[in-house]
Write a structure and sequence with these properties.
single chain, about 325 residues, mainly alpha, two-stranded antiparallel sheet, two-stranded antiparallel ribbon, 4 strands
């Protein structure tokens, strides 16, 4: 904390001496009431904001709460049954009960059936996702949408990548539900780890592309004299989506799986699968909502050789006329 405060202090002279004093000054009269801030007269921005809610819920339904708990939780195998003297006598992530000498779940509320990883490993796992997500988001125009002739993006670009966003979570839901490798009583943890790493990396890349496209569209659809209010309203929807995903994931992860008892916990594998399914539904809802946006002028290309949606002339002029009004 001290280092961070020192960095901020070093930046202050440049802020005071070099920034334009008119920066951030409104060209028109500022909003004088909440009613002026929440004037919902921008149709495209309203629809995009609603889609953003479900887009971010599609991640937080499984990323914020269930995944860390699952990575930390031990396998259900032997919990509450196997005798022990030391923690090493139990499955990875479990502890030996001091009173009864029986293997127990250190945190029954977090469920069982997971990988039993250390905190540092789980932190590195999730931190790696954040780093990859941030880098891909900044590289999207150069590496993804540009080469695919999808720059500048429009609603069709987001619909396409929104549907693609549902594929990793749907795939891992099917694998967890049907594969014997995720059996809570006889798991194959190396294969489980491999699957989760692949899905996490794949989703981080696709989700970053979606987020980058959204970041362009919100500025594109915002009215020129209401940029701050428009972006603020949009990111309020973003926060609501994260809240929905976080609360919903806690409920699903806790109550979907069978409860094996006090020292064992609930079936975290079934809970995690339900959270991935909820994320898939949220991704598809976000894409479906985005279809309603009035932004059809450019169509959708997939490289210079393929046209997925033909361009429709005239919409852009109409939109410009409406903005002028």
């Amino acid at each position: 904390l001290g280092v961070l405060m020192g960095i901020v202090a070093l930046a202050m002279p440049w802020v005071l001496l070099r920034l334009d004093r008119d920066l951030g000054t409104a060209k028109k009269t500022n909003a004088s009431s909440w009613r002026e801030v929440f004037v919902l007269d921008n149709y495209n921005l309203n629809i995009l904001s609603f889609a953003r809610l479900f887009l971010f819920a599609s991640r937080d339904f499984w990323f914020e709460v269930p995944l860390p708990y699952y990575l930390r939780s031990p396998s259900c195998q032997g919990l509450g049954v196997d005798s022990c003297v030391f923690d090493s006598d139990c499955t990875r992530g479990a502890v030996c009960g001091l009173d009864d000498g029986i293997c127990q779940n250190l945190s029954p509320g977090g469920g069982c059936g997971g990988l039993g990883l250390d905190r540092v490993v789980v932190g590195a796992f999730l931190g790696g996702y954040i780093i990859l997500y941030g880098q891909i988001q900044s590289w999207t125009p150069q590496l993804i949408t540009g080469p695919l002739d999808q720059t500048p993006p429009n609603k069709y670009t987001e619909v396409l990548w929104g549907v693609i966003n549902s594929i990793p979570t749907l795939l891992i839901y099917i694998v967890i539900s049907a594969s014997p490798y995720f059996d809570t009583q006889n798991p194959n943890q190396p294969v489980m780890t491999l699957w989760l790493v692949i899905i996490l990396i794949t989703f981080a890349i696709i989700f970053a592309i979606n987020s980058s496209i959204h970041s362009y569209l919100v500025v594109n659809y915002a009215e020129s004299d209401k940029i701050a209010a428009s972006v603020g309203f949009y990111y309020m929807s973003n926060a609501c989506g994260r809240l929905l995903g976080t609360i919903g994931s806690g409920f699903l992860f806790t109550y979907v799986g069978e409860d094996y008892g006090g020292v064992v916990g609930q079936d975290g594998t079934k809970g995690l699968a339900a959270c991935f399914l909820a994320g898939t539904v949220s991704s598809l809802l976000a894409a479906l909502i985005t279809v309603k946006i009035n932004d059809n002028e450019r169509g959708l290309n997939c490289g210079s050789c393929f046209t997925l949606v033909a361009a429709q002339g005239g919409d852009g002029d109409d939109d410009d006329d409406d903005d002028d009004d």
